[in-house]
Design a protein that fits this description.
2 copies of one chain form a homodimer. The first copy, chain A, is built from 10 helices and 11 strands. The first copy, chain A, is an alpha+beta fold. The radius of gyration of chain A is 21 Å and the shape is globular. Chains A and B meet through strand 1, strand 2, helix 2, strand 3 and strand 4 of A and strand 1, strand 2, helix 2, strand 3 and strand 4 of B.
Chain lengths: 339, 339
């Protein structure tokens, strides 16, 4: 659709220069054609399947519009890499649609693309295409990430079996509490955390750490897996529904970082928030009992901690939370809705 | 990020029901896992390359927020199919990120997904994944479309050769003039068009007709091709830059529909608008002179009209427009900027 010429905004580059100066340098693979084309050709890899995920983030829904642009870029990329990792896929390509608000600046783009470059190098991925567009209502970052894996080895949410053991990577709840720190929520005062602990939680919210290194172990051992992005309880409920099973979650086994454990001890509903809040970007896996030792060993080899937190049951549907004594813990069990 | 529970909006389905009721029925292929997973597995097709394009549309930039939801859906899909067709790729899959404004309704979603279904059936494609999210600032529809073609046969913008003949499909300018009709622009009165002609133009704006049937002929004959989405002159300039060539465009040869031809005759800057306006979604091709007859025959076989409008030249860069007498026509030559 027709737009006003850029002459009204002489200090900003036009679309062509923006792509040439900031995005084309991120797209150096042959199939990306230096972003001179409007489509990309993904290299055929015999013996592999292509796994695709597409997750978008909107300002003031998934991040604050005022967050550092490089962190917005890296978060948008990483939430997609997290999805691929949980399927056992190694990422290699991504596409970006960047819907820019009217007040975008070249400095913002420079920071945003710097963030993309840092993560491209960290994860060995390349930009293959996408578009930039005007978004009168605010920033929306849409990423499509592409990975590959040996044919027929993708791990879904649907394959869980009764008595599979439930494992989760890393620690749970840091980002949900970190968001409260980031937005200056008064609830944070009730947790009596040191400033350094608050900063640690906030960092976990701002910059997810997708478990890309786990993808081989996921493929080798998991009957079902997904990333934990909308809260452990809600996401476990989704895995149960997709697999046609129920689950028992042992609340005393859920791995918490020191700051989250402190916050839970101090009360203030931090346990609910930790189990129900989003943005963990850890991996939840269903592991057949006979594979537990091998899975734990393979995860440890790539430096990723894993914790057994419960098991799948044939008593579908639903997730029961029990404490150390086996008593049922009443929980608000729901997954965050993104609209 | 945490959202208010849906209890504040009791009349609208939650994300889970929305996916189950409206989107999952569009995702019936095995690799889409009924949208129960957060990633899709694209079937491996030996001997083929995967071609991917990603184009997003924002309300009040690429369409009006008040446009019929089924037409918004179909336009969003079709602009991506148009990109694939111009590369010679047959579409088979798409992913959708739907960023919904706060006032979305279930009826809107029902109409939107009905539009998707109609076009899925028309073009033989399936939904494989994506996400829905809240967009405080307004609707953004982001589509990633995936096609395939025999390995190594993708046609890019980069392969044009000096003396290649330039062809374009269909007619040019209908949508650019149609947008003026759609928005009630006073300029329309200067064109003295019948109501039926205005409606014809408006329809071309609202619902592109991607040239999917041409993809085999594109692969067989074109040394370079692209879809015309941002205006013929500007897009030809992009093809020239990508191929490192210049072009001569014969303005008297550009194919216009009867309403556009009438509007041009009546003055009112309609020629500039037709050559420079966006949303044509026709295909621009560079055809080696020796292949002209075969290309025209193959296009005619699939019912697509093609017109020779000029040629590529080694006098890079830039596009010269000449009239029937060979005189240079001064043009505002630029491509529309989407931000």
């Amino acid at each position: 659709m027709a737009q006003n010429p850029q002459t009204a905004e002489p200090s900003r580059p036009g679309e062509f220069d923006l792509i040439a100066d900031y995005f084309a340098p991120l797209a150096s693979r042959p199939g990306a054609f230096g972003l001179l084309d409007d489509a990309a050709c993904l290299p055929a890899r015999p013996g592999t399947d292509v796994v695709v995920t597409k997750d978008s983030l909107a300002a003031n829904v998934h991040f604050l519009a005022t967050d550092p642009p490089d962190l917005i870029a890296r978060k948008a990329l990483r939430v997609n890499l997290s999805d691929l990792a949980a399927k056992g896929a190694e990422p290699f390509a991504y596409f970006l649609s960047l819907a820019l608000p009217p007040d975008w600046t070249e400095a913002w783009i420079a920071d945003f693309t710097r963030g993309l470059r840092e993560d491209q190098e960290m994860y060995g991925i390349d930009l293959y295409g996408g578009d930039t567009l005007k978004s009168p209502g605010g920033l929306v970052v849409s990423i499509t990430a592409v990975g590959h894996l040996p044919t027929g080895t993708m791990v879904t949410r649907l394959g869980g079996r009764s008595d599979d053991l439930l494992f989760v990577t890393g620690t749970i709840g840091d980002a949900a509490l970190g968001l409260k720190v980031h937005t200056g929520d008064p609830k944070v005062a009730e947790w009596h955390l040191a400033a350094s602990q608050q900063a640690e939680l906030r960092d976990r919210y701002l910059l997810p750490r997708p478990r890309v290194a786990l993808c081989e172990a996921v493929r080798a051992h998991a009957s079902a897996a997904m990333d934990v992005s909308d809260g452990l309880l809600g996401d476990l409920g989704k895995l149960c529904r997709a697999s046609g099973l129920g689950a028992v979650l042992q609340s005393d086994r859920v791995p918490f970082s020191a700051p989250v454990a402190s916050a839970i001890e101090s009360g203030g509903a931090a346990l609910d928030l930790a189990l129900d809040g989003g943005d963990d970007y850890e991996v939840l896996l269903a592991i057949p009992p006979g594979r537990q030792a091998d899975f734990e060993a393979d995860a440890a080899k790539v430096g990723i901690s894993t914790t057994r937190i419960g098991s799948l049951t044939k008593f579908a549907p639903g997730v029961s939370v029990i404490d150390a004594g086996g008593e049922t813990v009443p929980m608000r069990s729901r997954s965050f809705e993104h609209f």
